Fold:
Amino acid sequence: MSNLIRNNAIVADEWTRVSPPTLGEEQVRKQAGKVVLFKLTGEESYSAEQIAQTDIPAQGKILLPLAVWLARRHEANNALEQRLEKGELGIIVATHESLEKLVESVGDINRLPIIAIFVERFADGRIFSLGNLLRTRYGYRNELRAIGDVLRDQLFFLKRCGFDSYLIRADRSAQEALSGLQDFQQPYQAAVDIPQPAWRRIPR
Structure:
């Protein structure tokens, strides 16, 4: 069964996610006796070798990592650009990656039928900021999807930041997560989904 929630329902996923191959062990640093993964703004998500070896399906709707799109969008007679024009290509942005690079590469950001924000860890709050920026600063109007470590408790707040579809983590139930979108009926603060605060919306 699908784990994708869109428009308050569980739906089939028509987009194929493209992932670069794993080449050897992921590089880590050790701190205070623990293994910690560092992915900071400006750090490359994938190596040049991984990007070059990424297998991109020739047909169907694909979600392509931003790093792969930036490196390969002009190769093979602009095939990826052509698929973008047909509405068959969306972009995955990791939380440490630059929205500016995405916008520069596509010109009009609304050429993209879907943007997916990948959050590696539930506690990474940058996903909320990125969603908000896409809807407000960049005026993105199409599907904005949360993927990765996405759990029920986040859904209401992701919706407030402009997300409208959510790929629930594979080991959790999308059916159980659905109710998270209705956790609060009258949020006090203004946000992307409701631009006015409660004191302006509700007559007293």
Summary: Residues 106 and 112 are 8 Å apart (CA to CA). The chain has a mean pLDDT of 83. The beta strands are 4-6, 9-11, 16-17, 29-31, 34-36, 62-65, 89-94, 114-119, 143-148, 165-167.
